[in-house]
Write a structure and sequence with these properties.
By secondary structure, the protein is mainly alpha-helical. It has 3 helices and no strands.
């Protein structure tokens, strides 16, 4: 048996749903899957910036690791 709960957004999930699932399924296995496929889509400006990076001179290329280290030295907090 498989049960699917669908909500338009995370804001629509009732606060007591976990308790209801626990009471219904007890010790049976439960899998919760979140569809985050649209969460990480790039904006057009982000895509444009990446395309511009592809056209940069490779002789002046700085790796992501070097960039992060330079930012850390400037006390810029990265999350």
């Amino acid at each position: 048996m498989q049960t699917t709960f669908y909500f338009e957004s995370a804001q629509d999930i009732p606060g007591d749903i976990l308790e209801k699932i626990k009471n219904t399924y007890h010790s049976k296995p439960v899998t919760i899957t979140v569809d985050d496929s649209g969460l990480y889509e790039l904006t057009e400006s982000q895509k444009h910036a990446l395309d511009e990076r592809l056209n940069e001179d490779r002789a002046t290329y700085i790796s992501a690791e070097k960039t992060i280290n330079q930012l850390k030295k400037r006390n810029i907090v990265l999350k």
